[in-house]
Amino acid sequence: MVLGLGPVVTVALLLVMVKIYYTRWKKKNPTNQRIEVFLKNHGPLQIKKYSYSEIIKATNSFRNNLGQGGFGCVYKGKLQDGRYVAVKILNALKDSGEEFINEVASISRTSHINIVTLLGFCYEGSKRALIYEFMSNGSLEKFIFDENAQATNRQLDCQTMYDIAIGVARGLEYLHKGCNTRILHFDIKPHNILLDENFKPKISDFGLAKICTRKESMVSIFGARGTAGYIAPEVFSRNFGAVSHKSDVYSYGMMVLEIVGGRKNITVEVDRSSEIYFPHWIYNRLESNQELDLKNIKSESDEKMVKKMTIVGLWCIQTHPSTRPAISKVLEMLEGNVEALQVPPKPFLFSPSTSPVQLSWETL
Q1: pLDDT digits (tens, 9 = 90+) for 244-281
Q2: Alpha carbon distance 299, 281 (integer Å)
Q3: Based on the domain organization, do 217 and 87 belong to the same domain?
Q4: Is the dihedral angle over the CA atoms 54, 59, 62, 63 positive or is it negative?
Q5: Is residue 197 part of a domain?
Q6: 13, 69, 198, 277: which has the highest count of C-beta atoms within 10 A?
Q7: Is the domain of 98 the same as that of 153?
Q8: pLDDT in tens, 304-356
Q9: Are 257 and 249 in contact (CB under 8 A)?
Q10: 240 in the same domain as 119
Q11: 3-state secondary structure of 78
Q12: 189 among annotated binding-site residues
């Protein structure tokens, strides 16, 4: 009987040691501490917490990879109630906890037709995951850039492009004005706009988001955040003005111009150097009253929609925040008559060859 206690005691001691080691590691790990403080301060969240074993089961052991981002991979999954979901598995080596906290803190506060729904999360030691509603058509970039559109065998018509621009603007208006707290996204781009089966857009990926009170007209951030090509000048350098909701407007404007042009804002494969920077090229056409000559335009109605989106996009990417419209004004312009819109001034950032800021920007 006494001899039989040896292995049992040994196993018990090992379990105690493992638990002590795990507890000490958990306490010393700054990422875990940050997340635990956040979860404690926010109390019971409205979204469900899943175990990691549930995540494995839902994704069929991560069988269907939907894509990869800067902070981890996204997999298609299916919950027990039959709903399909997108599961983002955060990379423990890259995520400092900020991505997880930003997503949960911001999206759990929202409820809007043009904002992706966060259904749950997983936090189990170093294992962290976010569970979203599944968007069957994936991201917008698959349908607007030539190389991607050819692969999917689907190019968007002008009406669909216009509806997407309107939908994203409404989502941003909600984030800026419709929530109890103002949420600045800081990473609006085609990759982060998801489309459902009817091509209705939803803003996703709030990993860089900043939550502030509705009274705050300016926000304080450390360094530049966002994706090169979509970052507002003031986010890159405070010499251009204060960082605010107008920074999202800039990113939105650049995205709208990419939707219109069907190409990224800087393209090196074109024949003439004047066409390298698309906003520069399309501005010159508007200024000289030339036809936009874009392949998706098939009627006079299309021409008006595209011209309207182009003018609004150019207003949104004005160099100084004070000259950009708020997103509510953007919606007003998009839903109004194109004849009432004026072509904006030409920002000096339009010339990559002469702008030191643009040259520095490309190396960001």
Answers
A1: 999 999 999 999 999 988 877 655 444 444 445 778 87
A2: 22
A3: no
A4: positive
A5: yes
A6: 277
A7: no
A8: 999 999 999 999 999 999 999 999 999 999 999 999 999 898 866 544 443 33
A9: no
A10: no
A11: strand
A12: no
Q: What are the b/e assignments for 22-52, b being 16+ CB within 10 Å?
A: eeeeeeebebbeebeebbeeeeeeebeebeb
Residue where the block lists tokens 């509705």: 214
Calpha distance 343→282 (Å, rounded): 11
224 close to 291: Cβ distance less than 8 angstroms: no
Strand 127-133 and strand 84-90: pairing? Answer: antiparallel
Query: Crossing angle of helices 245-261/158-173, nearest 10°?
Result: 170
Q: Would you name the residues annotated as active-site residues?
A: 187
- Residue 326 amino acid letter: A
Q: DSSP string of 346-361?
A: --GGG-TTT-HHHHHH
Give the mean pLDDT of 20-37. Answer: 59
Report which DSSP code applies to 273.
G
For the chain, how are helix, strand and coil distributed in percent, rounded to 5? 45, 15, 40
Please say whether the beta carbons of 260 and 282 come within 8 A. Answer: yes
R_g over Cα of the chain: 24
Work out how many domains the chain is built from and give that number. 2
Find where tokens 């501005």 sit.
Answer: 283
Shared domain check, 95 and 186? no
Decide if 6 is inside a domain. Answer: no
Residue 158, CB half-sphere, CA atoms under 13 Å: how many?
A: 17
Instruction: Report which secondary-structure segment, H or E, holds 149.
Output: helix 146-152
Structure tokens at 323: 């000259």
What is the token pair recorded at 20?
């002590």
The total number of residues written for the chain in this structure: 364
| Separation between Cα atoms, residue 114 and residue 131, nearest integer Å | 17
Does residue 224 sit in helix, strand or coil? coil
Residue 318 sits in a domain of what CATH number?
1.10.510.10
Residue tagged 């759990």 (tokens): 108
* 194-228 pLDDT per residue, tens: 999 999 999 999 888 888 866 666 676 766 678 88
Residues 203 and 192: beta-carbon distance below 8 Å: yes
**Containing structural domain, residue 197:** 141-362
> Rounded CA gap, 98 and 119, in Å?
19
